[in-house]
TrEMBL record:
Descriptive protein name: NAD(P)/FAD-dependent oxidoreductase
Origin species: Marinobacter xestospongiae
Keyword match Oxidoreductase: yes
Origin superkingdom: Bacteria
Keyword annotations from UniProtKB, A to Z: Oxidoreductase
PANTHER family documented for this protein: FLAVIN-BINDING MONOOXYGENASE-LIKE PROTEIN (AFU_ORTHOLOGUE AFUA_4G09220)
Length: 599
């Protein structure tokens, strides 16, 4: 028996035992098939939540509470298992009472180390795709025939006026657009609210040099992947045009030039009242579900520095930076040292500005080419595609690693990165730049998941810092702003015509405070982070990203965001949760998160 056959047989035997016990009178005994400290990560299928169970007692409790109602069964391998370094990996399918799912299993010594289960489809409410696709044409004779265009125009006239949407999404960037596309395929009447005039403007309005730092294979939208000729790193205006096209092709009810003034939830009616101004006219929407899709970031963090009102030059947050062209020959100070700060500094240098970066705390730097080679390439690259890796399989592979043990997967990789680019990092240190690889050396993705900041994917700006072309002041900050200069906390003074605050954003629940109320923002608590007790991610340990894509402590309020990869992948689970509620399915949430941090 070869190793693959043996691995497949072991995985099949484990699944058979798992299936048998889960359908028995004591389903919680299935926890004994896991290692003592094993993990079960569930995305909606068992828990109607995004939940990671750590250790047999937690797994046992979840099964006891959910299995009788959820009725999981028909666990099958979907392809032959593989084995490497004593770990068997297997892809699987399963069913529950209401849904079909996919999963991933890791076995060590016959016991489950990790299990991922994900809901993929509601049995009674599947997407109308492939064999279920609509006919499009109405064959035969009919005096009431309505063309596609007429039906679409009628929907646009009525939805939000004579007909109420089931869901309203606040925020029409890539996150809101992708989620709306999912909901459209599930026949969930949805309106997207966006204050900009055109889909994609949130990208077009950013600084001129902005490009995606993630590669194209990582960034596809649901249903419509980028074409094979799409650039590896897409410029912002190209992304903007794609989102505009996508919104039209996917037939989204997208209310542009619309401002949300406020929202309140009626507990008795189980509906929201969302007040908007559309093309200058007030409209009240009454959805059952409200999604804040404002990205993973909240409201811009603008520091309060003595003397700001006295400054005679220009000052703005990085999110409002118009581009570098107007600052040729100017003295420019950029407060911050992460992605936006590097991009803006590099563009200012290219336009012959005198630019100084002020670095207050360490930044993780990784070269873009090294990131592709060492970190992303196995899942998201042309080589991965050629080897049979699909976007869905890559997403599920990434999701199969519980956050608790993800650092141990990443630390050795970033040790290799540090060795490979040692000369590059030494030159940065010699220039005075403060470097780190995260609190525990786990690198880019853990920093992103824990705090959403503190890193830069280098596409050229770091070399300018190392060479001194971008001037650097590290281990200091701005103590005071003067009419034409800034005084730093180390006592030095820099002349300044422009100050850019590349100081990041607050938690997403800041939008809940602005749109709904501070009470609701505090009720749901901080968004993002997982309680790792590392810098800017205070404990206790929560195991999943706070409040993202899952039920919150406020009924019918959801948060959707993240990078393009996360928005694509997790929009499926959020859409299925919303569809299930629209259809009146029983959706008992297991393990609703507690609130430990208000912001």
């Amino acid at each position: 028996m070869n190793s693959q056959t043996n691995a497949t047989e072991q995985a099949r035997q484990w699944l058979a035992s798992f299936d048998e016990i889960l359908t028995s009178g004591e389903p919680e005994r299935a926890a004994d098939l896991f290692e003592q400290n094993g993990y079960w990560r569930d995305l909606v299928a068992m828990t109607w939540n995004l939940k990671t169970l750590e250790g047999r007692p937690a797994i046992r409790h979840m099964i006891r509470q959910t299995a009788p109602h959820i009725q999981p069964g028909n666990w099958q391998l979907s392809e032959p298992a593989t084995e490497q370094d004593g770990v068997i990996e297997a892809w699987l399918t399963f069913e529950t009472r209401d849904a079909r799912g996919k999963g991933h299993l890791r076995l060590r010594d016959g016991q489950a180390w990790t299990l991922l289960t994900t809901m993929q489809e509601l049995k009674d409410f599947p997407e109308k795709r492939k064999f279920r696709r609509p006919k499009g044409a109405q064959h035969g004779a009919s005096k009431t025939r309505q063309t596609w265009l007429e039906a679409r125009q009628q929907e646009e006239r009525e939805l939000g006026y004579s007909q109420q949407p089931y869901c309203v999404i606040i925020g029409g960037g890539q996150g809101g657009i992708g989620l709306a596309a999912r909901l459209r395929q599930l026949d969930v009447p949805t309106i997207v609210i966006e204050r900009n005039p055109t889909p994609g403007d949130s990208w077009r309005n950013r600084y001129k040099s902005l490009c995606l730092h993630d590669p194209v294979w990582y960034d596809h939208m649901p249903y419509l992947p980028f074409p094979d000729h799409w650039p590896v790193f897409a410029p912002k205006d190209k992304i903007g045009d794609w989102l505009e096209m996508y919104t039209k092709v996917m037939e989204l009810n997208y209310w542009s030039s619309t401002e949300c003034l406020g929202a309140r939830y009626d507990e008795q009616k189980g509906e929201w009242a969302v007040e908007v101004i559309r093309d200058g006219q007030p409209v009240t929407l009454k959805p059952r579900q409200l999604v804040l899709a404002t990205g993973m970031s909240g409201i811009p963090n603008i520091p309060d520095i003595p003397g700001m009102d006295s400054f005679e030059g220009e000052q703005h947050h990085s999110s409002r930076h118009p581009g570098a062209e107007a600052y040729r020959g100017k003295k420019c100070v950029v407060l911050g040292a992460n992605n936006s700060a590097h991009d803006i500094c590099a563009a200012l240098w290219e336009n012959d500005a005198d630019v100084t970066m002020i670095q207050r705390s360490p930044t993780h730097i990784i070269k873009s080419d090294t990131l592709m080679e060492r970190v992303l390439g196995g899942l998201y690259s042309e080589e991965a595609v050629a080897n049979g890796m699909t976007t869905e399989k890559a997403d599920l592979t990434f999701a199969s690693i519980p956050f608790r043990i993800m650092p141990e997967f990443h630390i050795p990789v970033y040790q290799q990165v540090a060795e490979q680019d040692a000369d590059f990092y030494q030159r940065l240190r010699d220039a005075g730049f403060m470097l780190d690889f995260g609190d525990d050396g786990s690198g880019l993705f853990m920093k992103y998941l824990r705090r959403g900041s503190g890193y830069y994917i280098d596409v050229g700006a770091s070399e300018l810092v190392a060479q001194g072309e971008i001037k650097l002041k590290s281990r200091t900050s701005i103590a005071r702003i003067n009419p034409r200069s800034v005084t730093l906390t180390d006592g030095s003074e820099l002349p300044a015509d422009l100050i850019v605050y590349a100081t990041g954003f607050g938690s997403m629940n800041g939008w809940a405070a602005r749109i709904i109320s501070q009470d609701v923002a505090d009720k749901v608590g901080k968004c993002w982070g997982m309680g790792s007790d590392t810098t800017k991610d205070p404990g206790p340990w929560e195991g999943e990203l706070r409040n993202m894509w899952k039920p919150t402590q406020q009924d019918a309020l959801w948060f959707h965001g993240g990078n393009l990869h996360q928005s694509r992948h997790y929009s499926l689970y959020l859409a299925l949760q919303l569809k299930a509620r629209q259809e009146g399915l029983d959706t008992p949430v297991y393990g609703l998160q507690e609130v430990h941090h208000l912001a």
